[in-house]
Write a structure and sequence with these properties.
mainly beta, Neuraminidase, 8-stranded mixed sheet, 2 helices, globular
């Protein structure tokens, strides 16, 4: 009897796990984007985009006009730093670097550096819910950080169908979920921040072709921004000449 109950529970669990929905997309608007920008982080605030770019000697944080793609303000990182994700907390921007184990804090208006912080391992993506920050490092774990100290409060193991999801890259807080680019894929994971479970996949296959992206193994989907007031979702990629506003569509099955 116990064997039967255990088998039934396992089967039910498999059905639940297999029910993770997949979403497609419809492009609502297309905007210009700097085709030289190796996009690492992106967020939308006060009617403009804030973007971080990577590569040694080319890393920066920027304020960008959505409609034209014009860079309104820019601060370059020192050439020995490879810029990664960014996220706002109040009037400050927190910025990660890839392998330096060093982050920076900038004034959101002037882009003047007002602080710095350290962390162990690599820095990839960063977002926040207004209270805490969430950081990815390329593994299947997200770190929850106290923005006052940048200390690790806890770690979230991200799974889909019970399997750990690694290569979690750029992050964005959308509603009560974390949207996460999965490096080198056309998919965004919708993550439950309390459990780490993937609530859904967003399949953006073909968007790179619409962008007219130049060939290159690193010129992949990366960059998510959410306009909470206008309820608009923006996505782009590394060295993509276009940025898209998209609407999600539900698909059946996987």
């Amino acid at each position: 009897m116990k064997t039967f109950v255990a088998a039934l529970a396992l089967a039910c669990s498999a059905v639940v796990q297999a029910a993770v929905p997949v979403y497609g997309y419809v492009v609502k608007n297309t905007y210009p984007h700097d085709a030289a920008a190796f996009t690492q982080g992106l967020f939308y605030r006060d009617d403009v985009l804030y973007e971080s770019t990577g590569q040694y000697g080319a890393s920066s944080i920027r304020k960008v006009e959505l409609e034209t793609g014009e860079v309104l303000q820019k601060r370059d990182l020192p050439a020995n730093y490879f810029g990664e994700g960014i996220a706002p907390v109040g009037e400050r921007i927190f910025s990660l670097t890839w392998t330096n184990e060093q982050g920076f804090v900038f004034d959101i208006d002037t882009f003047e550096q007002v602080g710095s912080f350290g962390y162990q391992g690599q820095g990839w993506g960063l977002t926040g819910d207004g209270k805490v920050l969430y950081m990815s490092d390329g593994t299947a774990f997200l770190r929850v950080l106290d923005p006052a100290t940048m200390g690790v409060l806890r770690r979230i193991r991200v799974t889909a169908d019970g399997i750990p999801v690694a290569q979690i890259n750029e992050l964005e807080w959308v509603g009560n979920e974390i949207f996460a680019n999965i490096w080198q894929t056309d998919r965004i994971a919708r993550i439950d921040p309390s459990t780490g479970q993937v609530r859904g996949w967003i399949d953006l296959s073909g968007l790179d072709e619409l962008a007219g992206t130049a060939p290159g193994s690193d010129n992949v989907l990366n960059g998510i921004a959410w306009d909470s007031k206008g309820r608009r979702l923006f996505v782009t990629g590394k060295r993509w000449p276009k940025l898209f506003e998209i609407r999600l569509t539900r698909r059946l099955g996987k």
